[in-house]
Specification:
This protein has 205 residues and is mostly helical. The protein has eight helices and no strands.
Length: 205
């Protein structure tokens, strides 16, 4: 604003004071400031909301290009993020009202249970989506795990043989191959101890 504009505003204020009194002019300026601040706050909120909306649409579009797994994860991630301010705002409101342990109160309320439900449902849907995408690998993985379970009592023997064969294939000498076999034996015994620690309490009962 140039100097002439500032002068005109000052003259208008002086004229208002002379015509209506200082109290009326001060009250008008106060209300103008309040209305201007409220409009500025509304503009900032709307601009931020539009920014979040654009970023959300962009994230969903990018996730859709990457595939179903990324899209499901993005959808539930955004849902949890959108609901998080509600949880935080409710907790803050309870804290301002002097409610003891507001976080626990929110957790036990419908707000906390809804947010928890979103997290659980999202985790289940993401897991199902990943399993469906990799459904062709499930049976081979189960077979491999079952074979490991069957061979687990012979883990020291198998790992020793594997270490020896791998070292000899790589061209190592007898001493180096024996060291690799001993290392396999060691890990096999460690695996035995882990199995004993897991299953011993079951058979002890």
């Amino acid at each position: 604003m140039n100097g002439r504009g500032t002068t005109n505003i000052l003259l208008a204020i002086i004229a208002g004071v002379l015509l209506f009194g200082s109290a009326a002019v001060t009250g008008a300026i106060k209300w103008i400031a309040i209305i201007g601040g409220a409009l500025l706050l509304i503009y900032a909120v709307v601009a931020f909301a539009l920014y979040l909306l654009r970023e959300t649409v962009k994230s969903l579009a990018d996730a859709k290009v990457q595939g179903r797994d990324a899209l499901v994860m993005t959808i539930f991630g955004l849902a949890a993020m959108v609901f998080l301010p509600i949880v935080g705002g409710y907790s803050l409101l309870l804290w301002l009202n002097g409610v003891p342990k507001p976080v626990n109160v929110v957790t036990d309320s419908w707000v906390g249970k809804t947010w928890l439900g979103i997290l659980i449902l999202g985790a289940v849907c993401i897991a199902i989506s990943h399993l469906y995408t990799r459904r062709s690998d499930i049976i081979p993985a189960l077979r491999y795990g079952f074979s490991l379970l069957i061979r687990s009592p012979l883990a020291p023997l198998f790992l020793s043989m594997y270490g020896w064969r791998k070292a000899r294939t790589a061209g190592d000498g007898v001493i180096s191959s024996a060291a690799s076999a001993f290392l396999g034996l060691f890990f096999g015994l460690v695996f035995w101890l882990i199995l004993v620690g897991i299953f011993a309490p079951m058979f002890g009962k």
